[in-house]
Amino acid sequence: MRRELVSPGAGEMTYEIRNIVNVAEKLQKCGVKINWENIGDPIVKGEVIPDWMKKIVADEAMKNESWGYCHTRGVLETREFICSITNGHGGAQITPDDIIFFNGLGDAIAKIYGCLDSGSRVLVPSPTYTTHTLAETANAGAAPICYHLRPENCWHPDVEEIRSQVVANPSVVAIMLINPDNPTGMVYPKETLEKIVAIAREFDLFIISDEVYNNIVYNGESTVPICEVVGDVPALALKGISKEFPWPGSRCGWIETYNFGKDPSFQKYVNSILTLKMNEVCSTTLPQKCLPIVMQHPQYPVYLEERTKRYEKMSNITWNFLKEVKGLQVNRTNGAFYMSVAFDKGLLNDKQSLPIDNAEVRALVEGLVNKANVSLDKRLVYYILAATGICIVPLSSFNTNLQGFRVTLLERDEKECQRIYGTLAQKIGEYLAS
């Protein structure tokens, strides 16, 4: 073309959660049976949607109004219902005009970061969910500014580091967190959230709190939504039904805006997000109309509790196997359905491997691991995939210098979960010893 079409570094941005699928599909064609432990889609892992929920969706689909546009902000009755839940927490209060629906949180995240001035930065966790860092760095055209989640401290952040990063980087206008966290499964205690809010108040920042997993907490842990502790600090909370119902194919998420009128600059920023959404007219109508009916159904809390207890069981099975591998920093997952594991520094090297009997598979994997700049944890992931069929994600793809991997806890069969993670623990041990 007559000039470059994308900004420098755009080709370096990857979404490894999906990227690894391309490799796995090639191995499938070579006869490797794949266990998909890479992506947080409960449906792929066999989640059975109850008939009562399917009937609600079917009944709403039979109504003509479910097929039309809705208000740009979202269906009014649904926004009123969401207000009743949020305001019931007794913290920051909202009205239906403080809610904007999107076609999934990926859509919301793109607009949240895309509407910021390119010189305004968001302080993000490391490691963190790829979609946030891709959107933030693409808008800024620069490397992310991070605070670290510490595996040696059960993945909790050092609040003083957050403060020091805000002081050292005057371009920071917001602090982002995911609670419960993806990819680590850590749950933020209320006290930690209060300290982060205090930093935002001190330096006149706003908060971005991704709370899509907020109702999936277990192992005796507890947390609160950001609305309970935010006080008078401007904030955006990101919520959705993709993981909770779960209905990822609905692409239905929303943001709740707290303290919209407290700061003119924040007010202008939120209005720019709404204006951008207006250009798309609205988000999908059907799932919005189903949302309050599903959540008010008497079986909904029972169903959610059953799923949460299952994730708790799988988190403990996974933890019990992996914590026995010497050199791994393994923390039990307490929320969402992910577990991140980090290797002790210097444990991985570019000489390690696993035996692969299938010559075609071996050639494919060796071609991948011998490419320039392949991270050491990605090298491990490729060998594990080829040798066992277990598809996991390198931790280094989640905006971190740590070497490790992320898995999901979505396997429904307890014996199969034991087989998968017993095999994974064994093969990692063999890989490290090779």
Which word captures the global form? globular
Strand content: 5-15%
Order of helices and strands: HEHHEHEHEEHEHEEEHHHEEHHEEEH
Structural class: alpha/beta
Uncertain stretches of 5 or more adjacent residues: 9-13
- Whole-number radius of gyration? 22 Å
- Head-to-tail CA distance between termini: 48 Å
Could you name the CATH homologous superfamily of the largest domain? Type I PLP-dependent aspartate aminotransferase-like (Major domain)
Can you count the helices? 13
> The CATH topology of the largest domain is what?
Aspartate Aminotransferase, domain 2
Helical percent range? 40-55%
Largest sheet: 8 strands, mixed
CATH architecture of the largest domain: 3-Layer(aba) Sandwich
CATH class type of the largest domain: Alpha Beta
How many domains comprise the coordinates? 2
Strand order of the largest sheet: 2-9-8-7-6-3-4-5
Report the mean per-residue pLDDT as an integer: 93
How many DSSP-defined strands?
14
What topology emerges from the helices and strands here?
Layout: H1 16-29, E1 35-36, H2 51-61, H3 76-87, E2 99-102, H4 105-114, E3 121-126, H5 130-140, E4 145-150, E5 156-157, H6 159-168, E6 172-178, H7 190-202, E7 206-210, E8 235-240, E9 253-258, H8 264-278, H9 285-296, H10 300-322, E10 328-330, E11 338-343, H11 359-369, H12 376-388, E12 390-391, E13 393-394, E14 404-408, H13 414-433
Parallel strand pairs: 1-12, 3-4, 3-6, 6-7, 7-8
Antiparallel strand pairs: 2-9, 4-5, 8-9, 10-11, 11-14, 13-14
